[in-house]
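Fold this: AAA1 protein
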Amino acid sequence: CLATLIVMLVGDTYTLINYVSFINYLCYGVTIIGLIVLRWKKPRIFRPIKVNLLIPITYLAFWAYLLVFSLYSEPVVCGVGLIIILTGVPVFFLGVYWRNKPKCVNRLIESLTCWGQKLCFVVYPQCGSAEEE
């Protein structure tokens, strides 16, 4: 969010749309790759919708072409898009991967979550931990 706000203040909307488009294409392709890997590694898992593997493989062929063309035609935009994605890595390690956080860090994360929920009207905020109630 911070990187997007900076781009909105400094750059134009067309550039921001290009960043987001590249990020979306990248995420869609990685999702389809995950679908194929799961079909290969765990073929017996329940799937409510099952499609022929030719469809995702065809999609990946077009996806790879568009991604390579984007990297070739606008490498700076793609690089900034990758940097925007990579800003989430520290957040993942601090919020999800790090299991034995001190209580002060857990309280900070909880208060930031509550504040974000109130700001964006996303979910009715449940401030305070369940242990306190």
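The helical segments are 2-10, 13-41, 54-73, 75-86, 88-97, 103-120. The chain has one domain: 1-120.
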